[in-house]
Amino acid sequence: MTQPFNAILAEEVNGKPTASLRQLHLADLPDEPVLIDVEYSTLNYKDGLAMTGKGRICRTLPLICGIDLSGIVKESSDSTWKQGDRVVINGYGLSESYNGGYSQFQRVKAEWPVLLPDGLSTLDAMAIGTAGYTAMLCVQAIEDHGARPGDGPILVTGAAGGVGSIAISLLSTLGYEVHASTGRADTQKEFLQGLGASEVIDRRQLSDTSKPLEKERWLGVVDTVGSQTLATTIAQTRREGIVTACGLAGGMDLPSSVAPFILRGVTLRGIDSVMASHQRREKAWSRLASIMNRDHLKNLSRVVPMTEILALGPAILAGEIRGRIIVDVNQ
Asked: How does DSSP classify residue 98?
């Protein structure tokens, strides 16, 4: 193949990472064993940072943006993969240290792809995307901790975002009582209740300074916000409860104390979706294929052409994107 293909490439312009739609050739891709004919990617908060240059996501330039992708193996010099395999890739430094998914073709390491389970298309995989995969890792951590449906409410913060909305869907499908925190409670209540949230609360209830210990409320937490919100949810988590932390939209700091951990036995479980083991990834995608509510998935997502994705970067950083944006890299 010698004809050019499209990609969103971040380059340094006047000392700042700047992304634009460019035409590349296979010779521009890294020398890795697996060539993917990419079909879809997604728009995530980190993608917004990378494309706008507001966060130093791309650690080397030039670099193709997009932190995940799904597609078909076109060729492979590694025996693990054969032509026609349907695969998904999340994390591993895509759009940070390695070229990412906003490209019609990509070469990747043989250890990175996960074979899509039966019943999940490449479109489904990116409707779920890094956000849904991360949400599933949080849910699995809550299950592994021993929290069971009927034992008490699970709080999801940043509920209208990609991770939060899919976490609500997954938890409610599994039978948990789900409470949702959002900064858009007035406009998103019906949407979040439609995903299975039994109660919707304003995020301001969690963003104010909290005491080291507050009234016990949550059996478990899926936190996508960090900072004071995370500190407050920890202070409000029940004895022997679990808080999963997977985001930092509110900041990287944690103004908390040891009190919830040594006086209530609360567990704070970090969720690393970027470098999770292959075994953990396969389990997450298998669970997603079996329990993801397809009606919810359809309502949560919309497809946009890659030619329009640059304009949506600022919108996701401003909290103006609801649910999931799927990027069709071939449009």
From this structure: B
